[in-house]
Amino acid sequence: MYLCATIHILTIRHMNLFDIIIIALGLAMDCLAVSIACGIVFKRFILWPSLRIAFFFGFFQGIMPLIGWYAGNSFSGYISSFDHWVAFVILLILGIKMIIDYFKEKKISSKDKKLNPWKLSVILTLAIATSIDALAVGLSFAFLDFEPYLSAFIIGSITTLISLFGLIIGSKYCCRFRIPAELLGGIVLIGIGIKILLEHLFF
In terms of CB atoms within 10 Å, which end of the chain has fewer, N or C? Predict the structure, then answer.
């Protein structure tokens, strides 16, 4: 979705508010999926950790296009050649570890597990992995006439709201249907990594 939006916008020299919103929604879809997985792990909606996840997802999704814009098109070919592999490897490792932890069936709380959305290190890793594409999109902004800081704020804000929505949906869905949280969360992360890789290789 975001790729199509970017291609459309690259056909013009000026980006309006609607164009920025469309790109923001496209970029936020991966964060939405990951947020749903995190909500499933939580099993119920908990305000503070949910707000923390939504904030960091929105922050990195907003700051990455700015970084890409500052970098300009001089690095665009270099970054686009491996950004999808970085995201894929990170999400694959996290997903596999979640699945392994599920099958170990250790009798410990989710707060004590090495891989869980309670930990800031995991949140930051997920936030960076899902925002790498935003960095590549930001590189294309160097060719356009737009307000970079306002655009970053809009992208970050929309991602934050969508991520919070995903956390609410994931937590309620898990509680109602008793889904094995770690197993489904791992599958979701691996699926997102594969999707990112396929999008870059074939589209």
Answer: C
Distance of CA 76 to the CA centre of its chain: 20
Residue 148 · residue 66 · CB < 8 Å: yes
Number of Cα atoms under 13 Å in the Cβ half of residue 112: 4
79-126-83 Cα angle (round to 5): 10
pTM, to two decimals:
0.70
Q: What is the DSSP letter of 182?
A: H
Helices 17-42 + 120-140 axis angle, to 10: 160
Average pLDDT value for residue range 34-55: 87
Residues 6+ apart with CB under 8 A from 36: 166, 167, 169, 170, 173, 188
Q: Residues 103-135: pLDDT tens digits? A: 775 544 444 444 477 888 889 988 998 888 788
Specify which residues 14 forms β-bridges with.
Answer: 145
d(CA 62, CA 55): 10
